[in-house]
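chain below, 306 aa
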Amino acid sequence: MEAPSCRERPPGSEEEKEDPAVVVGLSLCDSAPLVWRMQDLRTVRSRGLVGALLGSLPRAPRQNGRLGRPLLLLPEEERLLREHHAAAALPQPDRSQAMSGLLKDGVRAELCQQYEEQQQRSFEEQSVLALEDRKSALHRAMTSSHISAESGAGTSDEALQHRLQTLDQNFTFPRSALAVQLSTARTGLSYCSEARALLQADWPIRQRCKPHCDARYQVYRDLRGRGFYLTSAGKFGGDFLVYPGDPLRFHAHFIAVCVTLDESICLLDVLAVTRLGSNVKKTVLLCSPGADGGVCYTSLQWSGMV
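prediction:
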């Protein structure tokens, strides 16, 4: 069964044309492709690749609802970029020379000065934002309904202005409160060999082999070529979540499960993933790449117990 048509414009339309000369710089962290530069994130997004943000935000470093850079790409996304010669690994800095003091004193001093200037600019910006937040909180508290009811409007306005003026004169932003954006993913990779092996595990948890990885990539390339957007579907028991458009605008319609043509599937596994897809209102697609480069799609839907 062929995959349903996508409501988005097909690749190659006016909206999806990109400059073929643009190359995305990838930073490899234990073979995981990370995208740090903002222009690279925009390029990746314009090509229909989604990835997953991993870094914390400077103003809210402990929340996990919204994340920032870096962007972790799926192995299939990285392979697709490399196949089109649109990605290259960024050169790694030679930390051994820096640690051994082989860098010239002038270069080291210049780098330190640039870092201190950047930190000072960030501190000044965050000081202004913190003062504005404090003023907004004070304004809401002073203009609440119960305070206005107890005192006259003129007295309340005078008290508010006096408190705001005092806050401007006495407010200090501690240096220890300076927020610095850091990557919060894959920490502790060098802690022990067991931790490295766990973090290197692929999804779903069943053992991956080269034929299956090739099948995943062929399915990814075919669906992306049809205009669909794909993300990881590990929590749904599949290989990819398939969106008819940008994931920021649409819900996923399909759960793609990649199987080779000669691979046997347990019937209980088929029933389980089909029932799960029905519970989350998604159609399960069994995707099997053929020898001719095409992909055969079989849709599964749970219809209830007989």
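The beta strands are 24-29, 32-35, 52-55, 68-72, 87-89, 229-232, 240-243, 254-258, 283-289, 295-300. Residues 1-16, 184-191, 198-207 have pLDDT under 50 and may be disordered.
thats it, cya
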